[in-house]
Amino acid sequence: MALLQISEPGESTAPHQHRLAVGIDLGTTNSLVATVRSGEAGTLANEQGEHLLPSVVRYVENAAPVIGRQAHEDAASDPHNTISSVKRFMGRGIEDVRGDAAGYEFIETESVPRIRTVAGDVSAVEVSSEILAALKQRAEQSLGDALEGVVITVPAYFDDAQRQATKDAAKLAGLNVLRLLNEPTAAAVAYGLDTGSEGVHAIYDLGGGTFDISILRLNRGVFEVLATAGDSALGGDDMDAAIADWIAEQAGVGLDNAYVHRRVIQEARRVKEALTDSERASIKVELHNSDVWEGELTKEGFDLLIDGLIKKTLIPCRRALRDAGVTVDEIMEVVMVGGSTRVPRVREKVEEFFTRPPLVDIDPDKVVAIGAALQADILAGNKPDDEMLLLDVSPLSLGIETMGGLVEKVIPRNTTIPVARAQEFTTFKDGQTAMAVHVLQGERELVDDCRSLARFELRGIPPMVAGAARILVTFQVDADGLLEVTAREQTSGTESSVQVKPSYGLEDSEIERMLRDNFEHAKDDVEARKLREQQVEADRVYEAISAALEEDGEALLNEDERTSINACLQAMKDARDSGAASDIKRAIDAADKATADFAARRMDASINKALSGHTLDEFKDG
Amino acid sequence: MQIDSTRNYFELFGLPVGFEVDVQSLTERYRDLQRSVHPDRFTNATDRERRLSMQQASLINEAYQSLKEPLKRARYLLELAGVGIDDGSNTVMDTTFLMQQMELRETLGEVAEQPEPLVALEDFAAEVESMINDLMSQLSSCFSDNSEQALNTAHGLSLQLQFLYRLREEAEEREEALL
After folding, report:
1. Rg (CA), chain A
2. The whole model's pTM is what?
């Protein structure tokens, strides 16, 4: 894939209305940002010409954190304040991170666990937002303007809490998220659009900390994910840890000391990379009290250390094939994604499983970011005639707690999103006026074995005999894979809903506070930012309605309706130019109300249009 | 706007109501509908249009899933006809069928003790598959008959199919455990 030359800031070659949009691969080990310019997608480099940004943040006292290569180099000398592989902690609770703490001091709080650093306690979301902010800055510098939107990739196997945490981090970094895109799907886009191959493909994505397998069908620009499976805590980091443990065992030392631990891990990683091209690698690492241990690891020895890990990736492969309803023979190609697929043993084992050599010709580090950039370009509206469409799935089953600590599945895994499903429940006691709704994600039958996403209560159920109330619980998963749950008592209409804020997520107020903390002069900036946000929103709504009017105003509206919508638009424009944030918001709401019918008619018209093509085709054929 | 519930799933795709569905044609229509309503087409639209798009795309996904797979399609047709809504809780299953199910389950339970467990499992899966195919063709003729009695029979058959699907799933799980 050709990389573009970086144009001078301000020198825009793009046509009018080109919206700056980028794709970001927020990786466990490295992150990248990519964009489409003049029809070509490429990753963006920093001033030193480096494309990969190590996903490492070092916190220092009374100064801005250091991000990227420098932070990575400082890790061994300042392990407690240098956070790497933070993606593993996204959307995780204190008991999840304890076993995986990698030498950090985690602090339990009411919501998300925080890591103690010299610059204060930080959450995984905040650390990730530093990485995103660095990429944002890089993109705006090299593209010469502010970004309008981003597509951020997440492992397909990320659960709701992990996705929500990623979106929170983006919000904190001041990014407008157009879509969360699954990493293997992004890779498929980059790959599929490049080669135009139709048929069923498997994307094997082994990154630094996560593993995904996706089976998808490509048909005339539609990428339909048939199934996905994986492990959101399995990757190259585990290979490093396996080598590190082996070194510790050979040297007869423990890895409790954070400094020693970091040094051994870094050496382990170097050894792993060296063994990609050589049969043996020598090891030299400083342990306690300047003792130096020297040794050697052969490729066979390394293979033995990681065979168990690779085997752990093949179980999800089998499950994904089964869920997709395809056999190994139907897979046309296996695409390798993620830095860890450079390990020769991984390639061998994948080839053995899928009975064909995997494709490794696209840089496995960059392919995800490039796919995200292509999707961002389309979502930003830069390619209105493009036929590409991604139909993704929700990776894990979603359900609700029922009697006896059991989980009743409402949306099974690998259901195409967006999806809405409703299930009816009832009261089990006479006169019961409230019902607790406990939302869970996972494949197991017991509540304790699934991840708790949220709890909320439906109150005000009219007292009735047990079993008489009819409570409809609706699960809606949007195109980002995020869940919203609504409960409604059917006979009385009592309603309660939650945008599922994961049990280990951040409250909106917390995000608000963090955003405020990021601005030095609190109050004024918050007010100014609110006004600016409403202005941007008004512009967006104005543009959207104007475009809709231009397209369908004549066909779907009568003159009175057009006049009244135009009046609302004018009022919104006036408010935007001279009103306060609250005035603008009111005008936006009014415009939204005024166009409700129009929006519904447009949707119906586009459905009829999509089908009319068919009736016509088949008429001709017949 | 609420989702248009007056249109049934077949009408949504412009297809005739019936058990025989050309899945290829259904899939093409599905893709074209998603191309026009999917939220990816509405990222720059107003919140209302985005919400509408999500609802429509959800409905079309649901409709496609319900019609694509024969057992789900059968159940949807029965639902449209108002047959067997209480879904099995007080339906008396055919005793011969239940006896047969118990035997099949026993066979599956003993697969691991066979000299060649994987071969035994393969034979077992083939047997279940042929039973599924048999029920499927019976189901098909019930739907083409379309009398009240035939639809009631279809309801019984759909419950039996559900048992067999579950059995097939368990066989697959067992295979995974053996590998």
Report:
1. 26
2. 0.84
